[in-house]
Structure formats: C-alpha cells, structure tokens
Known about the structure:
The structure holds 2 protein chains of 2 kinds. By secondary structure, chain A is of the alpha/beta class. Chain A has 2 domains: about 5-120 and about 295-310, Nucleotidyltransferase, domain 5 (2-Layer Sandwich), CATH 3.30.420; about 130-290, Nucleotidyltransferase, domain 5 (2-Layer Sandwich). Chain A has helices spanning about 35-40, 45-70, 85-105, 115-120, 165-175, 180-190, 210-225, 230-255, 270-285, 295, 300-310, and strands at about 5-10, 15-20, 25-30, 75-85, 105-110, 130-135, 140-150, 150-160, 260-265, 285-290. In chain A, strand 9 (about 260-265), helix 9 (about 270-285) and strand 10 form a beta-alpha-beta unit. The radius of gyration of chain A is 20 Å and the shape is globular. In chain A, about 55% of the residues are buried. Chain B is of the alpha/beta class. Chain B is built from 6 helices and 10 strands; from the N terminus they run βββαβαβαβββαβαβα. The mean pLDDT of chain B is about 90. At the A-B interface, helix 2 and helix 3 of A face helix 1 and helix 2 of B.
Amino acid sequence: MSDIILGIETSCDDTAIALVNSNGEVLSSVVSSQVDIHSEYGGIYPEHAARAHIHTILPTIDLAFKKAGVKPQNIEAIGVTRGPGLISSLLVGLNTAVGLGMGWNKKVIGINHLRGHLRSADLEQQRVKYPATILLVSGGHTFLAYMKDINDISILGTTRDDSVGETYDKVGRMLGLAYPGGPAVDRLAKEGNPNIAFPRPLLNSKFEFSFSGLKSAVSRFLAANPDALQADVAASFVQAVMDVLIKKSHNALKNYRSKSFVIVGGVAASPQLRQQAEKLCNKMKVELCLPPLKWSTDNAAMIALATWDYIKLNIHKEPIAQLQLPIFEF
Amino acid sequence: MLTLGISTSSGKFAIVFGIEKKVLYSSDNLKLSENKDIRKLVETGLSKIGKTVDDLSSIIVDNGPGGTSSVRTGVAFANSLAYALNIGVAPVSSLELLGIEAFDKFHKPVICSINSTKGNIFVGLFDKNELKSAKYGKIETILPDFLTFSDEFVLIGHQSTRIMELSQDKTYTDTNLTFANVETLLTKSHLFNDKIVKFPKYIIPITEENYQ
Ligand SMILES: [Zn+2]
C-alpha cells in the first residue's frame, strides 16, 4: 500500500488540491483562490465558480504533485469532496477525480466535506484531545459537534438559516466594506463601541443557531439611522454574534465532557472569537485548540486526511455530487 | 490508436470508441445515453471491445454549447483522463458537430442553432467543413446576416422551425435533428486532428463568454 492520498476539494469557490500521507503529514497543499473573481460581484455566483474551477483544476493538481515531489503512481487513492456544496462546482472536482482515477487506475472515494473540516485540526500533528467539542464557523457552515473519537461524531446543533460567515459578508456589504466581509467587519468593530442592542437569536435554544434575524436587524437599524457610527454598528454586530457562539459553546462544554474545544472554519480567524473562546476554555478548564488558519478554511489536505479514515474503516462512497450531506454520514 | 469520443452537450451522455475512422463501439446504440455516470459508460465500452484505458491514444470531446453542467462534466472528465494518460485531447463544438452532420447529408450551407438562457441562441453558419460564422443572441437579430450567404440552407438544431417562420423567402431543408450523433466525433476525426492539445493546454467549455 502506498502512503499518500490525493485530495481534491471544489465544493465552493476555491480549487484546492493536496497530497497527504497516512500520518497527516502534508506533502503539498495548493489552494487557487477565486476571491478576485467573486469580490467583483460581492459574493459567489455558482456559475462563475464552476467556470473558474475548470480553468484552474489541472494546473493546480500538476503543481501539487510537483511541490510534493510525488509521482501519481505512488498514491494510494483519490479522495474528492462529494458534498455538501455547490453542485456545479462539485461536479468539476468529482469528474476530474474520476478521469484521473481511471487513467491512473486508482480508487476514487467521495468524501463528506464536513468530515474534512472536523478532521482538519489534526493535520500535520495530533492536536485534538478526544473527546472534543468542535465549533465550525465558516461561510458555508455553522455547527457544533461532539467527537468521542475520530469515528464517533454527533452533531449538537446547526444553523436554521444563514451561516456566520454569510452573515458577516452580508453585514460587510451593508457597511460598504469589500468582499469577503469577515476580516473587514472585525477590523472596523475594533474601532467602535458595542452600544447598539442587536438581538441574540435563539439564545435560549441549547445548541441551535439562527442569524437571519440579526442580519435583518442590522439592515433595519442602518436604514433608520443613516448617520450612525459604522464602527459602532460593526462592534455591536460582532458582539451579538460572539455572545451567541460563546453561549452555545458553553452549553456544549457543560453538557458533554470534553478535553479539547476546537474552532475551525474561516470565522476562526476572528480575533474577538479567539479571545472570548480562550476565556471560556479557562473557565471550563478545557484545552482550546485553534489549528493554523490554512487548515481551518477550505483546503484539500483535510479532505485527504478524512480519506484515510474512510480507507482505514473500509468505507467506500461513490464520487457522486450531493448538495446536502449530513455530518454524521461518511 | 484507440480514440474515445465524448458528447454530453445534449444533456444526455454518449461515448464512442474507434480506431482511425472506424467505430468499434457507440453508447447510443445501446440506449445507455440516459446514464449520467461517465465512468460506467467508458468502462462498459472498453469491456465490450476488449480494450483497456491504457490503449487510448487520443480523446475528442464535444465542448458545447449545450447543457452547461453536462458539458462541464464531459470536459472535466476528458481533460483529466487525457492528463492522467499523457495523451492529447481535441475539442469540437456542438454546433460544428451539427454542421458537419447536416452538411455531410445535404451538401448545402447549414444553419445550426442551440438554445441558451433568457431566449438567447447560439447560432452557427457551417459550409464545407468549416464554421463560417458563430453568433450569440436573439435569433431575429442574428438571422439576417446569415441569410445573405445563400438562397438555400439546411437547418439543424433547436430553432429550425422558428428560422423557417422568420424568413420565408429562402429554401430550407429541415433535418429534424436537434443534436448530433456522437459517432460523428469519430467518423470525421480527421477534421479535428489539428485541434489536439496536451497539458499544460486543456479544453474549456464553450459558453456565451467565449463564443464567437
Ligand atoms: Zn467548508
């Protein structure tokens, strides 16, 4: 058995390719970002994303092999994201993987993107101490999960509507900030005071999230108060999001015995979230695990690492696109 | 010298295998075209002709226009298979494919048309093995230019009936076809030889952005 997996990830707007061995060592990880394309439109248009994937996927694969100094004959299998995600984008990665698998005579396994995120914290080194509570906050997803070990995952709660990342992007747009809105909103928030009472949606529900009400409240406030200090709006919005995320995470840590609290996803970059999570973990006497951001945002190394789990458990999933895919499914 | 032809622009998936211009296998004949699993189609074809993927020496792929997702599926597969096998891949537009097929039967200028979104149409004027003109937009706007080319036309594609209604002073032969036969990719493969590319070049689907 060879010791390397080729991971392919095209569920959203980044073309990501990686080569990872069974110890989680990343031999190469290349992400072709489409931020420039999508910032022009203030968001992701599925058709633009799919067209860009077709342009970038083969050169990105070629580069990943060159960087790793690996020959295709030396890989064990190809793991490719099968969902959840944008169907048109998924199809490019999946069909590319199928063509490569056929040409190289390698097995192609369809991987659940969310399992990739859950495993991302163990890339390059074993960071997570199980059992662990995991908060995934990104443009595509928002949920809390509990992992007894790497194969025993339960979902505690997810969002009923928008993800945290989406909400940040939309509020960023309302404030006239550039796409992606997350980092810009966080920066602006630091200059303001959280003195506007925005709602904290579903604060009393144990683990479930909802952000569309908060988004609408910001929009209504800006319409009614055109002269409001933008930094104060940003600070108040960020505080509302943090209160919700920290309260739910607190609920999870109270109810599920955890050695680590892991935050992954693009919003893990938020300095406010990192700061408040540290306070929470000190209080709960749980180790805070913040993997490097490059493994936190969408990448293919996490898909390759998850592929090893499938292989070790002898689970085969066809490389067929799935718009929706529950987290507990392999 | 085994060649694989792939056409997915009609929304249905079809493949053909052949050597030189001789068709060895065509999925159309087996009514497999509703199958959207391109790998299974190719594997079935290879096993029917007793060959393996390593016998392939080139790929010809219909790169649209047509069903956006299905074209992308066929092209992504063709690109990566060619890359993995280190062989060449040639693109043929679905309009050219229609034109070739219609011209071959009737030996007259062909107007080929494929529907796009928002009432826009991909229209091609094909004559003597060559796409003379390619336009994208409303059929009413495009047609007058094309009609100056000849008094007689062969029609193939989605808008054939509409074209006959719009301009009744020309003579038309309607093929009653909306999509080309995948076997044309192989039987006319000599027309596509000079389009073969190898990585770092690869095929991009035709869309309204890069058409014309
Ligand atoms: Zn993701």
